[in-house]
Structure formats: structure tokens, C-alpha cells
Amino acid sequence: MQYVSAYRYQVWMTILSHSLSAVFTVVSLPLIIPFFQILFDVQETVVEQPTSAMDIDGHLKYYFANILNTYDKQDALLIVCLAIIVVFFFKNLFRYLASYFITPVRNSLVADIRKGLFKKYLSLPMSFFTDEKKGNLIARMSNDVTEIEHSILNVLEGAIKAPFIMIGCLAFMIYVSPHLTLFVFGLLFVVVFVIGSISRTLRKHSGEAQESVSRIISHLEESIGGMKVIKAFQGESFQLDRFNKENIYYRDKLTSILRRRDLSSPMSEFLGVSVVAVLLYYGSRLVFSDALNPGTFFAFIFAFYSIIEPSKLIANAYYNVQKGMASVDRIQQIQDINNDISDIQGSAKLGELKNGIDFKKVSFRYPGSETDVLSDITLKIPANKVTALVGLSGAGKTSLVDLIPRFYDITDGTILLDNRMIQEYSIESLRKSIGLVTQEPILFNDTIKNNVIFGMSDVSGQDLENALQAAHAASFIKESEHGLETIIGDRGVKLSGGQRQRITLARAILQNAPILILDEATSALDAESEKLVQAALDKFMQNRTTIAIAHRLSTIKKADHIYVLRDGQVVEQGTHDSLIEENGEYYRFVQLQELQ
Ligand SMILES: Nc1ncnc2c1ncn2[C@@H]1O[C@H](COP(=O)(O)OP(=O)(O)OP(=O)(O)O)[C@@H](O)[C@H]1O
Ligand SMILES: [Mg+2]
Q1: Is 109 contained in some domain?
Q2: Is residue 506 part of a domain?
Q3: From atom 16 of ligand 1, which residue's Cα is the shortest distance away?
């Protein structure tokens, strides 16, 4: 409903068109009566116009008697046939108009749901993406949206149309014979009851099937990404088995769902025809006993026939909606997630960093995890200086720097930027002030140029060139066939590890932000390139608050201050020289490197 409200105008036009179409459907019903009267030669001599406006039957008989009196039988038939053509023309014209208005709404709804979902994905915190399987998120965007399109939106038109026709026909039937009309209500009750009992579990089963699709997509996505390892370790049959298990589960689930759903149409047709049979028997008896005129009875049958189709539509719609609601639920689950990492009211803007970043007794654990990865960290990152973080793998270095752009919020303690709590800054300004080189180069399947200027606007050619020079990327780009316009493949697979890293480095340099976070930014470079890049970086880091994580001594040595982390705690700190003198963890770390 929230999505539909934007298309109120079209929806009203559809409803209007359908109601007009229904009016013409109802008008078409009594047109049959004179036809039968002529054919079966029923003589009626109604000459007086009825006084009550409600006496439609009387009016019709009067007008028809008039026609018969004025023209001969042939002409009268022609007039009736022409009237039928005109009425059906308008009935179908409005039917088309209804589709004409509802089709763009349908397609826009699908597009809106997709966009809303993607926007939501973009706004969710990092922790969400580490918890959720990628395939699950992709499936919601592809399968669930398609499911909604097919099962709910496809029946939308029918669901709007059917009630109008049903109400119109029902009114006509009640008018003609309340007695016979009772049968129709009987049918509707039976249909609703039977369908309700069968489709009750449809939503649950559909949900399970969609979960299964998610797992299939996850598996596929993972396998494509890890193809090298699958081949190297000959894991093909292992992966295939895992895939097929899920595949078969989904197949069987879907079969049982569709069998249930497919019951709706034959079931309602059978019920419909059964009642028609009873109706024919009853109605004919009324005609024989002269209680009903045959033309009116045929019109009644025709009205009843007209009601079968829309009630089938409604029965189908009910089934399909039950099936699609599982997907709606799955999308709604995402929409309902609250983002804890958001701006407070009246948030401050972070511009230049003047003082520095302070961690005060900071503890952090990943959402859903039991143990702290950082505990009681107190450290100072002074503005416009280079601060290095050193420590064994898994010590918590990446986790620590991830707290600065608020990818995650801390569990305990405070982080201050220029003596103000980090939460008080707007996230946009905070992230804008940070240039980040992630530990794993993160690239998109696009041109080199677009990967470097990613998200930035108004980048001059000169700035781009300088950034690429500084990251020592200009030379290999020149050598590649299409230069800056070279497409680098999924996650940059068409580049070497070192080339990928240089692109991400150029991206951070180009951003020219006051805070620079380098997480192993030069780890994949050869010694010579690293030296060149380091020289360029040294220049770039002047007057910039830099946090560098590195294993290589050459990178750390020049830092103004070094923190040594172990098991999520700061165990040593100082300059390179003072830490060597301390003869502790750092000293051992340096010794190991110098042995190489
Ligand atoms: N998303 C996550 N969810 C739960 N635990 C995590 C997550 N990411 C990392 N960890 C855990 O946090 C700890 C610290 O990881 P972190 O990546 O910060 O280490 P690191 O010091 O950067 O190591 P390296 O030098 O290997 O990059 C590890 O024990 C790891 O298992
Ligand atoms: Mg790390």
C-alpha cells in the first residue's frame, strides 16, 4: 500500500474504467431477453410505459414492444444485434482503458520495490553484511521481487475488476430472481471455504522455497568467486553435491506449492459448473411452470456465467497473493531493520581535524559475537602526524580502524575527534574526511578511471593524473590497451594483486581527505614499487592525520608514534627508537624482519 499511494491517480482511473466496464457488462445482460422473445416468438403486448422508474423490466418490455410495433421482426433483430455490438464495444473499451492505466502502475511498483530495497541495502550498517549471506540479499532483489510481480501484481488488475462485475451481475440476478441468486451465494461460500482451507499453508511453504533459492544463489555466487580453489583442490563433485541437494529440495518444494495453487482453477470451475447444472434444473422448472419467462431465465444464466469468471479470478488472486506474501514478508523484514548507526539530531560537521582522535577505554565486539576483539583500548592519534599500528595477525588492527568511519559502533568507552564524541558528527561529514585504503583491495567491474574517481564529482584530469602518479599506477595504465578506460573485471580480476592495490591507493589519494587510513596499503607491492610509492605517500601524508597499519618495517619506521597491539590490547607504544630500547614485543618483531 505504501508503494501504491504514489500512483493514486492511475489507480482511480483504473477503478473508474472497471466500474464503467462493469456497467456495460450489466447492460449487456438484458439485451438477450428480446432476442429470445423474437426467436421463440413470445408475444407480449405491453403498451403502457411503467410509472415506476425502478421497474426496469417493465421499461425494457415497453421499449421492445414499441420496436416490434414500429419495425418488422428482421429489423427489430438488427436493432438488438447493433445494440449488443455497441454495448460490448464500450464494455471492452473500458476494459482496455483499465489495463492501460494499471500496467504502468504495476511496472512502476516493481521498479519502486527494487529501488527501495537497494536504497535500504546501501543504508544498512556493515555488520548486516557480515551476518547475512550475499545470496540471500541477491535473491530478495531478484527472486522475491519477481515473485511479487508474478503472483501479486499480475492478479492486481483482476482483483480490482472482479468485484465490480460481480456486484453488477449479482444486482441484476437479485433483481430478476432472488430465489435463484441464493445458489450463487451458496457457490461463493463453498469456494471461499474450500480455497481457504487449501491455501492456508501456502504462505509458509512459499517462504521456505524462497529461502531455498537464496541458498542456491549464495552457493552459486561463492562457487564462481572461488573457482580457482575448487579446481585446485578438485572440489567440483563436493560443490556439485551440495548444490544439488538444495536444488532438489527447491524442486520438490515448488512442486508441492504449485500443485496446491493449481487446484484453485479446476476446483472453482468444477464448483461453478455443478451449480450451473442445479441452476438449469431449477430454473427450467420455473420456466415450465410459467413463473419465469425463458428470455429472462437465459439472461440470468448469462449473468451467472459472467460471475464465474470473476470469482475464479478472485480465487486465483487469493492463492497467488498467499504465495507472493511470503516474498513480501522477506522484503519487509529488510525494510524493518533499524540502522543503529545513524546521525543524531543536530549533528556536527567534521571539517579539518585540528587536535586528533582519542580512544578512551574503548571495547568492541562484533555484533552477535561473544568475545571482545578490542578491550580497554586507550590511545591518541594526533592530528597531522603519522601513527602506526603494529601487531600479529588477528590482533585487532583492522577492527580498530574500522571504528573511525563508524562502520561499527563501539561496545564500550568513547572515541573523540577534536574532543567531541564521534557519534555527534554527521556520518556523511565523518566519512568524507577519511581516505581509506582497505586491506583487501575493493574494486568494481568498471573502468580504471571510474574506480579511481569512485563517488567523487568534479575531478580534474590533472588531479587524477597526480593521484595515479603518486600511487605509482600511471605507468601500468599507460601500457594497457585502453588506458584509463580499461575495464578491470569483477572485483578487478583482470589486474595483478599489486596493480589492484595501487588503484585503491590512487583512489584514497585523490579523495584528498584530512584523515588517511592505510590498512596494509603497500603490502602487495614489490620492494622497488613500494619504495617509490612510499616516497610519494610521505609527501602526501604531510599535514594529514595518517593511521598506517603495516607489517613491513620500512613503512613503520618513519611513523611519529607506534602502537603495538596484541589480542585486542595495546601492549607497547612509542617511537621506533624508544620501542627498540624497550626490548619487548616490537623489538622481537623488528629482529624477525631483519633476519630475512
Ligand atoms: N566481521 C567479523 N565478525 C566477527 N569477528 C570478526 C570479524 N572480523 C574480524 N573478526 C575477528 O576479530 C579479530 C581481529 O581481526 P582483525 O581483522 O581486526 O585483525 P588484524 O589485526 O587486522 O589482522 P591482520 O593483520 O591479519 O589483518 C579476529 O580474531 C577476527 O576473528
Ligand atoms: Mg587486518
Answers
A1: yes
A2: yes
A3: 396
Interval between CA 549 and ligand 2 midpoint (Å): 8
User: Could you tell me if 27 and 175 lie in one domain?
Assistant: yes
Cβ proximity of 533 and 522 under 8 Å: yes
> Residue 400: what pLDDT?
94
517 in a structural domain: no
Q: How far apart are alpha carbons 469 and 458 in whole angstroms? A: 19
Indicate the residue type of 384.
Answer: N
Q: Which atom of ligand 1 is nearest to the CA of 130?
A: 1
Q: Residue 481 has what pLDDT?
A: 84
| Co-location of 330 and 459 in the same domain | no
Ligand 1, atom 22: closest residue by C-alpha? 398
The reply to whether 186 falls in a domain is yes
User: What is the pLDDT at residue 499?
Assistant: 87
Q: Is the CB of 373 under 6 A from ligand 1?
A: yes
**Considering only CA atoms, which residue is closest to atom 18 of ligand 1?**
396
Instruction: Output the pLDDT for position 361.
Output: 93
Q: 39-42 — which CB contacts under 8 Å span 24+ positions?
A: 40/294, 40/295, 42/293, 42/294, 42/295
Assess whether 64 and 213 both reside in one domain: yes
The dihedral sign for the CA sequence 532, 538, 540, 541? positive
The CATH number of whichever domain residue 108 belongs to comes to 1.20.1560.10
Residue 563 Cα to ligand 2 middle (Å):
15
**What pLDDT is attached to residue 405?**
93
| Gap between the Cα atoms of 474 and 484, Å rounded | 9
Report how many domains make up the chain: 2
Domain membership of residue 471 as a residue range: 443-512
pLDDT value at residue 1: 74
The reported pLDDT for the residue numbered 80 is 80
Take atom 1 of ligand 1 and give the residue whose Cα is closest. Answer: 130
- Which residue out of 132, 375, 392, 398 has the highest number of ligand 1 atoms within 8 Å of its CB and is therefore the one to mutate? 398
Spans of the chain below 50 pLDDT: none
Residue 530 · residue 561 · CB < 8 Å:
no
**Residue 474 DSSP label:** H
β-pair partners for 356: 382
Each residue of 385-406: pLDDT tens digit?
A: 999 999 888 899 999 999 999 9
The reported pLDDT for the residue numbered 115 is 92
d(CA 272, CA 295): 22
Residue 282, all three cell numbers: 431449477
The answer on 452 and 306 residing in a single domain is no
Going from the Cα of 76 to the center of ligand 1, the distance in angstroms, rounded, reads: 89
Residue 186: name the closest of 205, 173, 199 by CA: 173
The domain boundary, picked from 301, 335, 369, lies at: 335
CA-based nearest residue to 459, from 518, 521, 517, 507: 507
475-509: pLDDT as tens digits: 888 888 888 888 888 888 888 888 888 899 899 99
Q: Is 391 in the pocket of ligand 1 (CB under 6 A)?
A: yes
Looking from the CA of residue 551, the nearest atom of ligand 1 is 25
CATH number for 452: 3.40.50.300
